[in-house]
Structure formats: C-alpha cells, structure tokens
C-alpha cells in the first residue's frame, strides 16, 4: 500500500474527499490497535489482547483467525460488528510526525476517496484554510494520539507489575463430518492479562494500576475474551459463504463444459 501523503493546499487545495462508508480496505487487518479512550465501548463487542513491539506493549482488537482475513468485513465491505475501531473509522486519514515532530494530517491517496465532484463530498480547503470537516478529522486524530500516549503509560505499568503473559489463543475449527474439534490454530504473538497475578496484588499496586488507567485495561481485557465466540461464529459464516461461491463456480464450469465444441460463423 502506498505511503500516505501530507494534506496540503498545494496538493489538495482544489480537491474534495468522501467519507469511507465501507470497510473493504480493512479486509486484511487481523489485529487493530486500540486506545484507552475506546476500550470500554470496544469491550462490549470485540475481543482484545496485547502485542509487544520494541519492548512496548499495546492493546489490539482481535479481528481474524491466524493468517486470515478480517472476520468483521462482509462480502460487500459492510462492517459486521457493533463497534468499529477508531483507527478504521478515521480512514483514509492518519497523523504522522514531520521532521520537527509536529503532528501532520496525512491521507491515503490510493483510497479512491479523493474526488473532484461536489456530490457527497467535503472540500479539503475553504479559501486558503482547512475546511471544517478537515479540522474535525484533525481534532479526532489528535484526541486518539493523546489517548495513545495515556495507553502507552498504562501498558508500561502492566509490564512493570509483570501482569501480562503469553496467550496461545486458539481459534478452534470444527470437523463438520464428525462434529468434533479439529487441530486448534494458535495466534502466537498475542499476550493477555494474568488474572491470577492481578487478583494477588496488594493495595498499593492496585492504586498504581487505577491511577494510570491500567486497571481498567486489565479488567476489560479479561471481559473481552468472551467475544472470541463471535469470532468463531463469523469464521464459520465466512467459510460457508466461500463454499457456496465455490460450488456455484464449479457448477457453472461443469455446465459450460458440457458442450466443448467451438464453432465459428464466417461471413463470405
């Protein structure tokens, strides 16, 4: 995917953009970053765990099977869950830091959402100034960035208290012929809260967790695990749809092959 480019008057001054109403772009997103500001709402419908990168821990929504497509994106690009992670709602925009470490609004120009028509679209600029819609998107992403900083601090406390553990989360498949589980497939990169250690913490550690927001993160992570059942339901539905399409394609090919004689009519 091409790198997003900075929104600027010289590049986008006369152009417009459309909000993204479908999520086909997220079809390959298996894990999506979350921030503290959305954790409570996300926990109501999505399972989440943690991943570690460069010794830093951060929470991620679990949206797929191992090495699979996003389970929450339907065939027509519609979102199948009740909560959409903020990072996906912001598409095609994101914030990146420039050389002076200032946050600058960027856009994915390959998204197909940059247009020149006024129908169902917003201007990038009004006069020489960013439009209200662009200002709102900038504010939304800046709020997420601020929450990302708070999330990193909370995750650091979880690490400091050694409350995360490896989570070989199993997306168990079913052998339809025998109606028994087949070989489970682990998502090895994921981490989870060690609930036994959490329950043994003394008062001072709990106060530290609460003040940093880490306690909410720890408790909600455990609660979110129940939504792995929904992931399994969605996985089965995707498999059934794929099988149906394959059967229709095979039926077409078989019918097309019944008459394998090609004839050509040439005019004199």
List keywords for this structure.
268 residues; flat; 3-stranded antiparallel sheet; 8 helices; alpha+beta
General description of the model:
The chain has one domain (5-166, 188-251). It is built from eight helices and 17 strands. The chain has helices at 9-12, 36-43, 86-89, 132-160, 195-199, 203-212, 214-224, 228-256, and strands spanning 5-6, 16-17, 31-33, 48-53, 56-62, 93-97, 103-107, 114-115, 122-123, 125-126, 129-130, 164-166, 169-170, 174-175, 180-181, 186-187, 191-193. The strands form seven sheets. Strands 1-7-6 form a three-stranded antiparallel β-sheet, covered by helices on one side. Strands 8-2-9 form a three-stranded antiparallel β-sheet, with no helix packed on it. A hairpin with a 5-residue loop joins strand 6 and strand 7. Helix 2 (36-43) runs parallel beside helix 7 and helix 4 (132-160) crosses helix 7. The longest helix is centred in the middle third of the chain and has 29 residues, at 132-160. The N and C termini lie far apart (53 Å). The model is unreliable at 171-186 (pLDDT under 50).
């Amino acid at each position: 995917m091409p790198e997003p480019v900075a929104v600027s008057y010289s590049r986008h001054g006369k152009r417009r953009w459309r909000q993204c109403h479908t999520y086909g772009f997220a079809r390959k997103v298996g894990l999506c970053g979350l921030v503290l500001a959305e954790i409570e709402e996300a926990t109501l419908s999505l399972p989440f765990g943690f991943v570690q990168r460069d010794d830093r821990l951060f929470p991620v929504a679990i949206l797929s099977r191992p090495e699979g497509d996003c389970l929450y994106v339907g065939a027509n690009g519609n979102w199948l869950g009740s909560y959409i992670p903020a990072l996906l709602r912001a598409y095609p925009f994101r914030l990146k830091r420039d050389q002076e470490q200032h946050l600058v609004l960027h856009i994915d120009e390959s998204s197909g959402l940059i247009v020149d028509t006024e129908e169902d679209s917003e201007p990038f600029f009004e006069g020489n100034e960013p439009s209200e819609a662009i200002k709102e998107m900038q504010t939304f992403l800046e709020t997420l960035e601020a929450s990302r900083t708070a999330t990193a601090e909370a995750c650091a406390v979880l690490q400091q208290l050694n409350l995360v553990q490896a989570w070989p989360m199993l997306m168990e498949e079913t052998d339809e012929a025998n109606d028994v589980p087949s070989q489970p497939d682990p998502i090895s990169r994921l981490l989870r809260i060690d609930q036994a250690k959490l329950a043994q913490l003394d008062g001072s550690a709990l106060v530290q967790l609460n003040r940093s927001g880490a306690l909410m993160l720890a408790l909600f992570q455990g609660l979110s695990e129940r939504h792995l059942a929904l992931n399994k339901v969605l996985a089965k539905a995707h498999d059934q749809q794929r099988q149906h399409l394959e059967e229709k394609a095979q039926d077409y090919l078989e019918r097309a092959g019944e008459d394998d004689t090609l004839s050509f009519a040439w005019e004199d």
